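Title: Prediction job returns without error message
Component: structure pipeline
Severity: low
Priority: P3
Assignee: unassigned

Description:
Job completed but the reporter wants confirmation the result is attached to the right record. Sequence as submitted:
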Amino acid sequence: MGRRRRQDLKNRASICVVAVVCVILAAAWIAGKGFRHAPRAVAAGRLNPELVDGRKAFDEARLLIDLGPRHAGTDGAERAARHIAERLEAAGVKAIIEEFRDSTPRGEATFRNVLGVIPGASDRIVVLLSHYDTKAGISEAFVGANDSGSSTGLLLELARVLRLSEPPARNFIFAFLDGEECLDAYTKNDGLHGSRYLAGRMKVDGRARDVQAVILLDMVGDSDLSVTLPRNSSPALISLVFEAAREEGVREKFSLAPGGILDDHAPFLAAGMPAVNIIDFQYGSAPGKNDYWHTVHDTIDHISHRSLQTVGRVVIRMLNTLIGQPAAPASRGGPP
């Protein structure tokens, strides 16, 4: 009887062990299926492009556009700056409004850059840019849905996504720039006020040496997306955009422009920082046209959440490559 009882106890113990193992395996399988359908901010040290939600970016753009005209130096621009700072803080990103004075063809004016900062685990810096002001002198009905509502909305969405990956492998600066639009014609005191101010400060205080990349977003919401990278961008970053677009499966929507474009990336290039301008400069009533640009037709019904999502996910793929690069400074490239 003793030998039979011992054998019975062994059999019961074996059955219990098998049951426990089955429960563990079943739980792991269920958890695995759950995670497979829930995007995560970081997988094996990489950012997940699927976290970029074009509808959220579109909603951010709409909120900005609903504020009305945002001409630099006006109450509308100040309202927009404070709104952007509030949206950054709501996403858990520390926001700073940098107010400064600069000369214009109409005398001195007040400008406000809005900076969102996510500290990282290294000294290297990636700067993401968008201007938020609107072109003056077009019409009181001009709201700049694509120029500059789309890029501002997308940059706020990217700040939300990158905040989820804290602590990130890079220091991220989100710069919402004032005074990109000129009053008459682009000169040293007309247009690019916010970018010249920020690039100059970063050069003086030494941060420019740690900048790995400056990525400018401008006019990225066109329903018929056709990004045309200007040639006055850093060659290595142009290649990086194309490779990221290929990975995202949207390479056909990105091409190289025949020439350069004077835009907010230019002061950063002049200060020795590698920079690229992601811009769709074919914003119009038919492919290849730009007849919505700086007109009352630049309205929210001409921008698309799908385009914002496409560009946002390409940017995340770019950041993954930049994060994976060695610590040596990126090569400076491209004349302004």
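Comment from assignee: result matches the submitted record. Residues 132 and 148 are 5 Å apart (CA to CA).
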